[in-house]
């Protein structure tokens, strides 16, 4: 299981799931974040809460190099500074109006976020490429039981009969759910990728059945 | 038992026009209640263990309370004005504090972003200064001289106009809005928001209107308001925290938020804290 230490990189999303000019919600051990990619392609992450009225910034919209809250259009830079308050167009927002930001890095098709500023780079999984993400209504321990192996920091490799080996990165979420990124080897054919996707789904169902029966203590 | 001044206030618990002898099971401030017609055709509300609760029928809705209201349901003089059309919009359930639902109703700065091309549109985002006061005699929050540019202010409006608004908060979970009436310059359309607190973080919102509009079909009027409130719901269910923070520090108001500031101050003054968060967490 991934460490709860704040100076650790967390794989919050796959690069392919966050297009240019869009925002999405994600989580780190410190709580919910708004993850967004500017028009020029730069990634940024901040606390998922506009300090004005508490609206989730992950519901906001990206214009140029800034993220705006969907409620009143308050606009924030990648560094978290409030740039604009549309209700008062001639006002320069004071420097005290800002959102807390997180460190972000993109490596191997995966977006990594850290609450602090880790010294090291996020891990690279040589030979693997991201396939998809899915969310299981089960905890990491139920997932470990279903897979018959312990989920480690770098995730774990699992193979279903008739499917290629897949690497899974489990990240604990709210309410006992687990976000799972699925990676396949770079040489997989289209049909092998489909088989790998189905294998990940079957593992998810197994973990959910174990969780529903009372989970694992 | 709820130890809060809000216990002794009136709340909407259903539409009178929809009521029958079989009645309606609903919830008021965490407790189950039943709203029904009695043998004489009068509204009757009962709480747990069959306890008979206060009842009033006003503005198309049945009102009740878990406590002992000290005053009748607040007045809306326009409800008795001839020529107005009264519209029961229905109900929208929202997973948020009832106080957050009212505060959102008092806010105009969100129009261009949440009700885009209906109640507001960029670049017309500026909120000009307006007047806010707590009227001591009526014990109500009032905002007046509120002006905003709107692409389609009402179902009866064609094209953009600068609309003038007045807002009243006569009860902790109710607000009455007066706005420029396109077909009748000099008169005000009335749109009220009656909020039923189901729990501190869950409410049923009952909008009600008293309009000068004999043209627009009823379905269109209801559809217009439902559209607006569903857009608001997408905001209200995603605010953190769910409860309304009454202590400063948790959120940052600006001049455009003076109505909200007065509303929060008025709530705190009266110990109206059901659905509020008192200490920043």
Fold and architecture overview:
Chain B: Keywords: Dioxygenase, Oxidoreductase. The complex is a heterodimer of chains A (217) and B (281). Helices cover 14% and strands 34% of the residues of chain A. The relative contact order of chain A is 0.15. In chain A, helix 1 packs across helix 2. Chain A is α+β, with helices and mostly antiparallel strands and 217 residues long. The mean pLDDT of chain A is 93. In chain A, the strands form three sheets. Chain A has a six-stranded antiparallel beta sheet, with no helix packed on it. Chain A has a four-stranded antiparallel beta sheet with strand order 5-6-7-8, with no helix packed on it. The longest helix of chain A is centred in the last third of the chain and has 23 residues. By secondary structure, chain B is an alpha+beta fold. Chain B folds into two domains: 61 residues, N-terminal domain of TfIIb; 196 residues, Naphthalene 1,2-dioxygenase Alpha Subunit, Chain A, domain 1 (Alpha-Beta Complex), CATH 3.90.380. Helices cover 15% and strands 35% of the residues of chain B. In chain B, the strands form four sheets. In chain B, strands 8, 9, 10, 11, 12, 13, 14 and 15 form an eight-stranded antiparallel beta sheet that branches. The model of chain B has no long low-confidence stretch (mean pLDDT 94). Chains A and B meet through loops of A and helix 2 of B.
